[in-house]
Amino acid sequence: MGRKWNNIKDKKAEKDKNTSRIYAKFGKEIYVAAKKGDPDPETNQALKAVIERAKTYNVPKHIIDRAIEKAKGAGGEDYDEVRYEGFGVGGTMVIVDALTNNVNRTVSEVRAAFGKNGGNMGVAGSVSYMFDATAVFGIEGKSVDEVLEILLEADIDARDVFEEDGITIVYAEPDQFHAAQEAFKAAGITDFTVAELTMIPQTEVKLTGEDKAKFEKMIDALEDLEDVQRVYHNADLGDE
């Protein structure tokens, strides 16, 4: 698998510019996870995973707690998990995950964000086959060899472990997310630069100039939508 850490890293670098938006999206995701299962993260792995990811984005504890308390109450909103796939300029591919209480509204807004910025929506499965669902961890202060030893002792077969910009990156199977996380914590690693389930593109498309600007505008438009939780793509938006 290619090493697509830069896309994740670059996206995380933008987080401080959009804290209110990120907090709102995490609040909704935590609420949905808690409402679907036990509101206790120790017995609800989906909820625990969302909370751990929220911590890497510095989401305050009171926002996490408030979302869980809201899920404990009677009634409340119901959300559908939906995924849209589409194409951007230069043959780029995009996956959009959303939580919505109005699918018609969401699909209309997502289609418009694509269409106004040189892209178009595709049918289900038209893009996702070119991405791999992956558990990703970013660890500071541990070498590749040290991390590999931790994984081997826990009988976890990682897809890839490598170092980039002083951070050791781990790619593992999605169903090993919790086991890997527990193995790291048992080894004294409690803080991660990233700890999440994501979609890693199998190949990337390098964009420059106007195409790059247009694509970034499209991604911004998608991420700004209230119902959209996460956007994945295969564009290389590195320095020209």
UniProtKB/TrEMBL annotation:
Which NCBIfam families does the UniProt record give? PRK00110.1, PRK12378.1, YebC/PmpR family DNA-binding transcriptional regulator
State the PANTHER family in the record: TRANSLATIONAL ACTIVATOR OF CYTOCHROME C OXIDASE 1 (PTHR12532)
Family according to the record: Belongs to the TACO1 family. YeeN subfamily.
The TACO1/YebC-like N-terminal domain covers: 3-73
Q: Name one Pfam family in it.
A: TACO1_YebC_N
Q: Where is the TACO1/YebC-like second and third domain?
A: 79-235
Question: What's the main place this protein lives?
Answer: cytoplasm
Name the Gene Ontology biological process terms.
regulation of DNA-templated transcription
Q: What is this protein identified as? A: Probable transcriptional regulatory protein FKZ59_10015
Renumbered to this chain, the signal peptide range is none
Q: Does the keyword Cytoplasm apply?
A: yes
Q: Which HAMAP family match?
A: Transcrip_reg_TACO1, Transcrip_reg_TACO1_YeeN
The entry's keywords? Cytoplasm, DNA-binding, Transcription, Transcription regulation
| Superkingdom of the organism of origin | Bacteria
Give me the Gene Ontology terms describing cellular component: cytosol
List, alphabetically, the InterPro entries matched. Answer: Integrase-like_N, TACO1_YebC-like_2nd/3rd_dom, TACO1_YebC_N, Transcrip_reg_TACO1-like, Transcrip_reg_TACO1-like_dom3, Transcrip_reg_TACO1_YeeN, YebC-like
Localization (cell): Cytoplasm
List, in alphabetical order, the Gene Ontology terms for molecular function in this entry.
DNA binding
